[in-house]
Every structure is written in C-alpha cells, then in structure tokens.
C-alpha cells in the first residue's frame, strides 16, 4: 500500500537530509575517481593477462547469453538448499554442454563457461579426473572404447581412490582387485570397513562409472594400487549394480552442490580389460607386466595433472577475492577526524592497504607461476608421449610444493580479503564466504599440503646430497649446487632503494632456501644416526624443517617466475613502459612482503643484519604507497565480470549498498512481509493470553 507523507513531515525532514547528504558517501563516484588515477593503460594489461581482446570480448558475450538462461541465472545462488544446489549443479553442467553443442564450441570455451557460472556439481570429477585418467592411464583400445562415451556424457565418471582409512598413503589402500585367470576377470572387493571408498566427487548420486584405484593381486602377489574402470550404476534406472553400495557422504564445510560419495564393493567381477593398461599390464594368464622403471609411479599420473591445474587456478581465485576487496575498500568510507570532512576510504588506512595491496601483488605472482606450471606439465606430456620420463621427478617435486604453497596462499588470501571488508564481508552476498569454503578444500584434496611439501623437501635434500657428490642439477633446484657457497654469503644491500633490485631480492630468497636445505639435510642425518633415511622415525622427526625448506623453495620459485616473466615481457617489448613499471612495483611488493615476513630465518642465519631488515621494511612500505593509486586499475585488469564475481561488494560500478539491498530481496525469508515464523511460531506464542504481561 502507498505510504502518504504530509507536507509538514517532508519540510521538517529536508534540513536533516541535506546535512547528511553533504558528506555522505558516493561509491560510484569513488570508484570512478580511483579509475582516473591509473598510471598505465588498463585495457592493454587486461588484454595481455586474458590472452587478447578477442577472448575478453568473447567471455563478456558468453556471460551475457548464459546469464539469461535458467541454469545460468545466479539470483538464487546464495539461498539454495543442499538438494537445490546439487540439482542446479547438474543443470548447469548439462546447460553448458548443450550450449557448447549448439554454438559448436571447443574445450577452452567450455572452461570459460564453467568458470563464469562457477556452480560446482556432480560432474566436476568427470571433467577434472575421470576423462584425464582415461587419457593418461588407458591404452589406445581402451581410449577408443571409453573416451567417446565419456566425452558425449553417455556415461558419467569419477575418480575413486580415497578410502575411509587412507587418503594420503596411497600404497595403504585396502580395496583389492584379485585376478582370476580361469575367467580372465578381476574380483573387486572392499574387505574391511576402512576400505570403503569415501570422498570421490559425484560418486554419491551422479556417477555411472568410476576409475577405481585398488591393490592388484595376481598369482598371490600384491602389486600395489592400480587403476581400473568399472560401471557402478545402471544406465537404465540409475540404480547401483549388484554387489555395489553407494551413497552421499553428507554435508561438508562447503562445495555442497557436489555429491561426494561412499562406495562398497562385494565380490564384484569386472573383465581383465577393465584394468587401465597404458603402462602396467596383466596378461590373460595372470602375469604382471610392470610399467617402465622410469615411470614406476605411472598410476599417480592423474594426480600430478590435477595438481598442476590447481596451481594454475590458484591465482584466479585469489584475484577474484582481491578484486572484491579492493573495489569495496575503495568505496567504503569509515571515520573522519574532523566534523564536516568526508570520511576516509578504508583502503587508505595503512593497516588495510598494507594487507590488501601485497595480496594484489601476490595474485599477479600466482598468475605467472600458474602459466609456468601448466607449460611444464604440457612439456612433460609431450616427452612422456615419446617415452621419455626424465623430467618426471622434477615435475612431481615442482607441482607438489607449488600446489601446497599456492593453495595455502590463496586460502589465506581469500579469508584476509573477507576480513578487510568488515561486516559486509561476512555476508554471503559479498561472495567471499562461499569462495573461501569452497576453495579451502584445495589445501586437502589432491594431497594434503604438508604431505605435498614433504615430497618437495625430499627431492630437494636428495638433490643437495647428489650435488655434494658432484652430480649436476637442473631446473629450479640448480642453486643447490652452490649451497656451500651460499652458507657463507651475506646480503650486500646498504640502502633502502637497493632493495628494489630484483637481483637482491632473488638472492635473499635463494640464500634462505639453500641454507634451510643444508640445515634440513643436517638434521635428517642426525636423526638417522649417519646416512639420511627418508622414511620412518628419522624422517618423521625432521618433518618441520623439511616443510619449512619446501615453503622457502616454493617462495623462491614463485618470485623467480614473476621476475623471469616480467623480464620476458620487457625484452620482447610486449607491454608499454608504464604498464611494465606498474607490474615491477607489484613484483617488488610481492618479493619484499614475503621476505619481510620471513626475516627471522635470515637474521638467524646471519644473511641479513638488523639494519638491512629496517631498510627492507621501509622499502616495502614505500611500495605499498606506490601501488595504491593503481589498486583499482590493477584489479580491473584481471577482467572479472560482475556476473562472474556474483558479489554485491565487488560490483564494477561501485554501487555496493544498492547491490546488497537488491540481492537480499531474493532471500526466502522475504517472500512474505510477516515471514515464515509468524504462522509457525510467533503468532501463537505472542498472542497467548498474558504473554506480554509476563515480560
Ligand atoms: C578435481 C580434484 C578433486 C580431488 C580429487 C582427489 O583428491 S583424488 C585423491 C588424491 N590423493 C592424493 O593426492 C594422495 C596423496 N598421496 C600421494 O600422492 C602419495 O601417497 C605420496 C606422494 C604422498 C607418497 O607416495 P609413495 O608412498 O608411493 O611414495 P614415497 O613417498 O615413498 O616416495 C617414493 C618415490 O616416489 C616418488 N613419487 C611419489 N609420487 C610421485 C609422483 N606422483 N610422480 C613421480 N614420482 C612420485 C617420490 O618422489 C619418491 O622418489 P624417490 O625419492 O624415491 O626418488
Ligand atoms: C572436498 C574433497 C573432495 C575430495 N575428492 C576426492 C575424490 O574425488 N577422489 C578421491 O579419491 N579422493 C578425494 N578426496 C580425498 C582427498 O584426496 C584426501 O582427503 C587427501 O588426499 C588427504 O588425505 P586424508 O584425508 O587421508 O588425510 P590424512 O592423511 O588422514 O591427514 C591427516 C593429517 O595427517 C598428516 N599426515 C598424513 N600422512 C602424513 C605423513 N606421511 N607425514 C606427515 N604428515 C602426515 C596430514 O598432513 C594431516 O594433517 C577429497 C577430499 C575432499 C576434502
């Protein structure tokens, strides 16, 4: 009903409204003013980071089209129940599928569409691990049989490795695949409670097929975990097949549109050809043919691929969080020192800028490392297909440490971004809580981060020991050849400005990692009572320093990638000098922020003096100031669309308060004026005779 306001009321209110308007915030104007401060061409960087103008425009065009579809509509996103999320996730996956067919789009466009809608569902593992496993583990005949069905969604698969009792220790899996040469079949079985498969995404209610990781037994001998493909649900009525029990594992911290599942197998028979036989094989008679020695870990190949993609994506998620927080803190005004003055943009508080702008720099650092990671994986695939596995150990070490480092950084970065947005950051409408709860699993899945760091540390210590006996090292561990020299090195920075030199920063990263490697090797030797032992008690008692080493090495790698990428951009003349300068500020800010956080190690080792630390801190603060004017332009250059961010606070027009108010309308609690509690509880309770007088 229209609300009549009389003239006297309006006149009386007018004065107060004027007073408030004189210094109230104007978020749209604030964001426009921020954009006007750019010292570089945002369009140029936007196109560079996103693979060219054409791709940027194509993404915007797709967003425009899919936002109008039922499955692409995000207005209910934050209000769905778990069941609704699950069903919606499936609709999205098939919606994208139909859209791709209709428009004849390829895989890279498909990736863009998935990332735009960002509604993980029951097909995540089909795309993320089932198909990649077929590609990496199946032989040509098996690929010819299964890939077309998988790629046309005739079947939906997942990757069933983890069990109730074992996730990290893959060799400890208890599901068995016992070969019966008489019938040329495997009997797959869950012999214990703890062998129940637990966690695979899509296993609960979606997948019809699985890649099963099970311990292969033939002729009474245990050959450890191998990959098999098998059907688990009927293609007619979607019911589990005989001998198979499957279900959803229940609600999780986040990612609830995905039906992570459990599975038990009771003496189920599958044909010999179900074993994926690209590398290891079983003959009809039951003789085991091992993979080539250089590829003893062939059955772990899919995990390495997925770890590489996780590294690739970490920068994207951090960039999204930082975009939201930077835009919002630029328009959020809070507190004024004198009456009548405009309140301060919260990004201008040193405490906010000092946390957020280093995160912005880190997002750029991760972008470049993600590219290097995927290039390294692609190079590995190429040589693997020629039968050359020589770069496998480095790829494993590199991807394990970076997976752990990048996901730790991004998980923490999303949460820091949320905190910097104050109260509104706690609202799911900001986009940040959901981003955090669904991202943080990256620290656990595909190898718990500490376990992954330990793999990298193991490789580094072995590399160091090898170098000490004259072995030549290659790749990112090459610096360990000079570890003894690094032990005596001292930092030579004597002025604040010298800390801007990338070589000075790189030397500090390298020195810290080299010294930690020597310390870790020493400790392991001591724990082992002589020659280092990489398992059991000596290894377990050295975990903390080994993880510290892997962290230091990964930080060195990320910094080096940033530095080398920028050097490449410069030497190829890919960007204008102003743009390169803006990126160089970010590189410096990233480097000095990490070094500043880790100065304890370098003071302890004697590489840095207290005075050099002071100079470092001063230069880091100066870089925060230098980056500040470009903050909004630099997040604009990531190129996230409003549709993609789905955040009231990250709106590109800055109209954050209207955004909150508008998005909140979709709350199911707002469907009626009185709310669902009135009839259910409130009315009866509040109208009880005497209920008011009791208070
Ligand atoms: C979309 C995503 C959804 C999520 C899905 C999932 O989570 S799916 C579930 C994801 N689940 C997980 O991620 C589980 C995580 N757990 C694992 O990956 C393994 O159990 C492990 C790596 C922790 C240990 O494995 P282990 O006990 O067999 O090995 P060990 O420590 O005794 O070392 C022996 C040697 O092997 C080497 N080597 C090891 N791995 C590789 C490799 N990939 N390549 C090459 N080499 C490798 C290692 O360097 C060492 O070499 P060295 O020094 O002797 O020359
Ligand atoms: C959301 C989500 C989705 C998943 N999807 C899948 C899937 O699709 N398919 C699938 O097969 N699996 C999946 N997983 C399982 C996942 O891969 C495992 O949870 C992960 O590898 C960690 O193993 P865990 O749970 O056994 O942890 P644990 O190994 O039990 O870890 C517990 C603690 O022990 C420490 N620890 C363990 N071993 C060591 C060691 N050797 N040295 C030092 N510290 C150690 C760890 O650091 C950790 O702090 C998923 C998990 C999650 C959370």
UniProtKB/TrEMBL annotation:
Domain Acyl-CoA oxidase C-alpha1: 300-461
Presence of the UniProt keyword Oxidoreductase in the record: yes
Presence of the UniProt keyword Oxidoreductase in the record: yes
Superkingdom assignment: Eukaryota
Record Gene3D superfamilies: Acyl-CoA dehydrogenase/oxidase, N-terminal domain, Butyryl-CoA Dehydrogenase, subunit A, domain 2, Butyryl-CoA Dehydrogenase, subunit A, domain 3
Organism per entry: Ostreobium quekettii
Gene Ontology molecular function: acyl-CoA oxidase activity; FAD binding; fatty acid binding
Subcellular location, record wording: Peroxisome
Boundaries of every Acyl-CoA oxidase C-terminal domain copy: 501-686
Positions that bind FAD: 162, 201
Protein name per its UniProtKB record: Acyl-coenzyme A oxidase
Transmembrane segments: none
GO terms of biological process kind: fatty acid beta-oxidation using acyl-CoA oxidase; lipid homeostasis
Protein family according to the UniProt entry: Belongs to the acyl-CoA oxidase family.
Domain Acyl-coenzyme A oxidase N-terminal span(s) in chain numbering: 41-156
């Amino acid at each position: 009903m229209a609300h009549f306001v009389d003239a006297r009321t309006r006149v009386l209110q007018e004065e107060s409204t004027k007073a408030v308007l004189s210094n109230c915030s104007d978020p749209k104007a604030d964001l426009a003013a921020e954009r006007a401060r750019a010292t570089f061409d945002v369009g140029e960087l936007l196109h560079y980071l996103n693979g060219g103008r054409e791709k940027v425009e194509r993404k915007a065009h797709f967003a425009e089209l899919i936002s109008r579809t039922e499955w692409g509509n995000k207005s209910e996103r934050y209000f769905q129940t778990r069941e609704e999320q699950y069903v919606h996730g499936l609709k999205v996956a098939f919606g994208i599928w139909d859209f791709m067919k209709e428009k004849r789009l390829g895989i890279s466009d498909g990736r863009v569409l998935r990332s735009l809608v960002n509604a993980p569902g029951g097909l995540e593992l089909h795309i993320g691990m089932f198909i990649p496993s077929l590609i990496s583990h199946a032989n040509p005949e098996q690929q010819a049989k299964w890939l077309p069905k998988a790629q046309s969604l005739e079947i939906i698969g997942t990757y069933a490795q983890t069990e109730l009792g074992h996730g990290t220790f893959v060799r400890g899996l208890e599901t068995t695949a016992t070969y019966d040469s008489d019938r040329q079949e495997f009997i797959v079985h869950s012999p214990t409670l703890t062998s129940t498969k637990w966690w695979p995404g899509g296993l609960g209610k979606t997948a019809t097929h699985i890649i099963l990781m099970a311990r292969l037994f033939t002729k009474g001998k245990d050959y450890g975990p191998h990959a098999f493909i098998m059907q688990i649900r009927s293609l007619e009525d979607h019911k589990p097949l005989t001998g198979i029990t499957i279900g959803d594992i229940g609600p999780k911290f986040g990612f609830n549109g995905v039906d992570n599942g459990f599975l038990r197998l009771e003496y189920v028979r599958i044909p010999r050809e179900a074993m994926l036989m690209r590398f290891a094989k079983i003959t009809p008679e039951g003789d085991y043919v091992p993979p080539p020695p250089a590829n003893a870990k062939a059955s772990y190949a899919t995990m390495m691929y997925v770890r590489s993609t996780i590294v690739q994506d970490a920068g994207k998620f951090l960039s999204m969080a930082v975009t939201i927080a930077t835009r919002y803190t630029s328009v959020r005004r809070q507190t004024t020192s004198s009456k009548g003055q405009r309140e301060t943009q919260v990004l201008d508080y040193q405490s906010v800028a000092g946390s957020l702008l280093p995160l912005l720099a880190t997002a750029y650092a991760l972008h470049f490392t993600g590219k290097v990671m995927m290039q390294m994986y692609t190079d590995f695939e190429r040589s693997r297909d020629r039968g050359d596995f020589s770069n496998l150990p480095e790829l494993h070490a590199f991807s394990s440490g970076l997976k752990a480092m990048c996901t730790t950084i991004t998980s923490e970065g999303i949460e820091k971004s949320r905190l910097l947005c104050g109260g509104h950051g706690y609202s799911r409408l900001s986009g940040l809580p959901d981003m955090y709860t669904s991202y943080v699993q990256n620290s656990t899945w595909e190898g718990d981060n500490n376990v992954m760091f330990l793999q990298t540390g193991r490789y580094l210590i072995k590399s160091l020991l090898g170098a000490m006996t004259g072995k030549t090292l290659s790749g990112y561990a090459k610096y360990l050849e000079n570890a003894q020299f690094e032990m005596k090195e001292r930092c030579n920075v004597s002025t604040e400005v010298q800390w801007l030199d990338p070589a000075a920063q790189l030397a500090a990263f390298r020195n810290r990692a080299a010294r930690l490697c020597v310390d870790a090797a020493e400790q392991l030797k001591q724990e082992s009572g002589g020659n280092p032992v990489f398992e059991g008690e000596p290894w377990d008692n050295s975990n903390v320093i080994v993880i510290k080493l892997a962290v230091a090495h990964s930080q060195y790698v990320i910094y080096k990638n940033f530095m080398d990428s920028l050097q490449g951009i410069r030497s190829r003349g890919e960007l204008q000098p102003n743009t390169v300068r803006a990126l160089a500020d970010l590189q410096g800010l990233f480097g000095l922020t990490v070094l500043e956080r880790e100065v304890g190690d370098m003071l302890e080792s004697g590489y840095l003096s207290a005075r050099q630390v002071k100079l470092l801190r001063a230069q880091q603060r100066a870089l925060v100031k230098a980056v500040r004017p470009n903050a909004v332009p630099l997040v604009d250059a990531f190129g996230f669309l409003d549709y993609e961010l789905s955040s009231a606070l990250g709106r590109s027009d800055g109209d954050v308060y209207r955004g909150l108010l508008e998005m909140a309308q979709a709350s199911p609690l707002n469907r009626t004026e009185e709310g669902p509690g009135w009839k259910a509880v409130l009315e009866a309770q509040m109208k009880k005779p005497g209920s008011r007088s009791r208070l």
